[in-house]
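Batch manifest, entry 17 of 40.
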Amino acid sequence: MTTATPRRSFREQMLDVRQEAILQATSQLLCQKTFAAMTMDDVADAVGIAKASLYKHFSSKDDLCCAAVVQMLAQVRAYLEALEPEAAPLDKLRAVVGWSLERLLAQEIPEWPGSHSPLRTMLREHQDCLSEWGPVSQCLEQWITAAQQQGALDAALPPRVVLHILYARACDPAVGFLQDAGQYDDTEIVQLVLRTCFDGLAAR
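Output type: structure tokens
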């Protein structure tokens, strides 16, 4: 006999909607400001709620920003899992970097924090972040190794080096510079960055 799943109350559903709005606002603010400059007041104002309501969901700015990054990594993992399994490894790598660049240009994901950012230190110690980051890195590294075995990527480069280069491109501040210059549209920027990433700068 199957036990029916209890229906969630309207209040619980509304709390979920509000939490999602909080996380989206946090991600957008992290695109616009540094972690240090962003405040809980900024988030509350962006969502249109009282700061006291914000603290019902997250006890601190640290917890809130970590949760936003965890959500972002979960979206990346879902995108990886949705790619065509039979596609060539190099095509899948290009696809995920291109997707990340599109999200970056749309200010849907922030640039990865620099080495001296307190947010980066927190993320390295945040268990949920590590749990999401691990499968993403493992999947990408497998595709990198496969692409090297197929001769599509330089086999002399350690896969972990290629992995970190791709991470850097996926949150590349160069896309912001190109966008601000106004010479290229977003689609052209993504293609140009992908070309320099995967094909290099040397003349062919």
